[in-house]
Amino acid sequence: MAIFLYSIVAAVVLIYLPFLVVGYARARVGYDTSAPRAMFDKLPPYAQRATWAHQNSFEGFMIFSAAALMAYVTKVNSTIAVYAAIAYLVARLLYSVFYILNIPLLRSLMFAIGSLSYATLFYFSIIQVSS
């Protein structure tokens, strides 16, 4: 199912959405091209959280992309798996929003939903190979 490949592409885009907030904040405080990482302490708290959301998105993407590729390669044909891939994307979008807005409980819930989503893809891939 091509939806798994499309979800990987969408997940790549989601990695960079929080970085737009970081870019905005960097522009406001005066971007220093000679030391961009040194600017972190000068950023407002929301932009620092956006940086962390951006970094965490890379970590989550690695696991999700492996799960989605497994589902694609093993030809998982399950509505639940498709919903899991979509749920991951929605959860990661909201994860970044809640991280930037500093709402830890909802951020953690979105992290859990994202984790359950790729666990579901792994599960269905293993079931597909086993049958």
Automatic annotation (TrEMBL):
Keywords: Membrane, Transmembrane, Transmembrane helix
InterPro entries for this protein: MAPEG-like_dom_sf (IPR023352), Membr-assoc_MAPEG (IPR001129)
Cell compartment(s), UniProt: Membrane
Transmembrane segments: 6-27, 80-101, 108-127
Domain of life: Bacteria
One Gene Ontology cellular component annotation held by this UniProt entry: membrane
The keyword Kinase appears for this protein: no
Pfam families: MAPEG
Subcellular location, principal: membrane
Cross-referenced PANTHER family: BLR7753 PROTEIN (PTHR35371:SF1), INNER MEMBRANE PROTEIN (PTHR35371)
Name under which the protein is recorded: MAPEG family protein
